[in-house]
Amino acid sequence: MKAKSLNIITSQKVLSFEKDLGWDCIFFIGIGGIGMSAIARYFTTNGKKVAGYDKTPSQITTDLEVLGVEIYFEDTLQNIPISFLNKDKTLVVYTPAISKQHIQLNYFLDNDFTILKRAEILGRITESTFCLAVAGTHGKTTTSSILGHIMATEKATSFLGGIAENYNSNLILGEDKVTVVEADEFDRSFLKLSPNIACITSMDADHLDIYGAAEALEESFFDFSQKVSDTLIVAKGVPLKGLTYAIDEAADYAAFNVRIETGKYIFDVKTPSETIHNITFNLPGRHNVMNALAALAMADVYGVSLEVIKQRLSTFKGVKRRFSYKIKNDDFVLIDDYAHHPTEINAVENSIREMYPNENVLVVFQPHLFSRTKDFIDDFAMALSKFDEVLLLDIYPAREEPIAGVTSEWLLSKINTKHKKLTQKNNLVKDIKNSSANVVAMLGAGDIGVLVNTITNQLLKHQKNEV
Predict the structure, then answer these.
(1) CA 444 → CA 137, 199, 323, distances in Å?
(2) Strand partners, 441
(3) Torsion over CA of 331, 336, 342 and 346, rounded to 10 degrees?
(4) Chain-wide mean pLDDT for the chain?
(5) How far is CA 292 from CA 89, 148, 246, 295, in A?
(6) What number of CA atoms fall less than 13 Å from residue 353's CA on the CB side?
(7) Collapsing DSSP states into helix, strand and coil, what is residue 205?
(8) Chain segment 27-47, per-residue pLDDT in tens
(9) Residue 15: pLDDT above 50?
(10) Does the pLDDT at position 21 exceed 60?
(11) Neighbours of 331 (CB within 10 A)
C-alpha cells in the first residue's frame, strides 16, 4: 500500500484544499465536541484563525483556549469575532447536534457563508490522502486510537473520537500523505469519507432516532463499504464481504492462545501470510483484544511490519473514558467509561468480572437519549442487572425533547437487581460511600463524564480523611 501514487502536495502539514479555497478563518459551532475539537486543533496547528461556540465550558474547550482558540458560550451575534464576518475568508463548520434555531448558524446561513458539517470537512481534509477509516457501532474510538498510535510510525495524521492517553489529544498530527479517521455512522456522516482501507467493527442497532429501523442502519454500513477503494476488513459475523478478524476461530486475522499475565493480555495472531507470537496488550477485556486485532489487520494491510505493530501495541495506554481508572488501590477502584449502549455496558461488566472476579461491583449509569432508552429498554435492564448494585441517574437528553413515559424510573423497574435505586448528582458521593461495593463503574455518554472528576476528588478526599 505504501507504493500507491498519491496526488497531494508535499507540505508537512497543510492539505491542498485549504490553500485552494483560501479560508483564513474557521468558525466552529459546537467546538467542544470530541470530533469537532480534533478538527479545530488541526486547523489551529496549521496556522488558521479558529474560533467557535459551545454550550458549556469543558476540559476540551479549556485546552483549545490554551492553543489560542477564541470560544464563546452564549449564542449571540456579538460573539462572532469581527474578523470572522467576511464570508469570502471564513469557513463555518457545525455539528448536526446543533439546534436548527441556533442564532449564529442561521446568521451564517442567511448571509451565504460556506457552511459544512463536521463530516464534510473531515472528508475534504482526508480526500487527498491515503485514508484508513474505522467504522462500527462499538469499538471504533479505541480501534482508531490504537491504529493512530501504530500509524504514527508512518507519519499519519489521525482524527480520533476520544482523547488518546499516549498523546493527551484527539489529534495525532503527522504529515499530509496518510490519515486515520474514526468513521461515524451518526447522521450517515461516514458516507462523506473516501477510505482506501476501512474496518467495520460491529453493526448493532443504534441511532434509531436517525435511521428509524435497524435495516436502514445496515444499509448505510453497506453504502460505506462500497466507498472503500482498496481493502475492507470486518469483524467475523458482520454481514459484509471483506477480510475477517476474530478470536479463537477461523478468520483471515485470527488471535489465539489468549491469556492474562500480570494484568496484561498476551496473545498470538495468524495473518494471511504469517504468524506473530506473544503480542502484549495492556487494555482489559476481550473486546479490546478484538479492537487491537482490527488495528493490527489494518496496519498490516497498509504495509507496517508485524514487529513494529507488536511494539506499538505493547505501548498503547488507552483512551480516556474507555475503562479509565480514576481511583485504583487495594481498598477501592473507580472506573470511568463512555458506555451508553447495552452491548458496551456488557463489555465493561465482562472486563470488570475478569479483572475483579471476587468483588462486589456497583454501576452508576446515566442513560443517554430518551429514544435510545426507549428502543433498548429491555437490553439496558438485562445488562445493568448483571451488576451487584445499581445507581441510576436521570436520562441525559442531549439533542432530544422528553418522550412520555420514558424515564429512569421505568428503566429501574425492569432491572432485576436487589440493590438498586434512583439517585441525583448531588447525592452520588453519599450513595457510593454507603455501598458495600469496592469496585464502582460510572458509565454514560452525557455529563457524567464531567461529573466523574468531581466524584473522584470527593472520594479521594474522604479516603484521605479516613486514614
Answers:
(1) 15, 25, 12
(2) 335, 363
(3) -40
(4) 89
(5) 42, 11, 11, 5
(6) 10
(7) coil
(8) 999 999 888 999 999 999 988
(9) no
(10) no
(11) 8
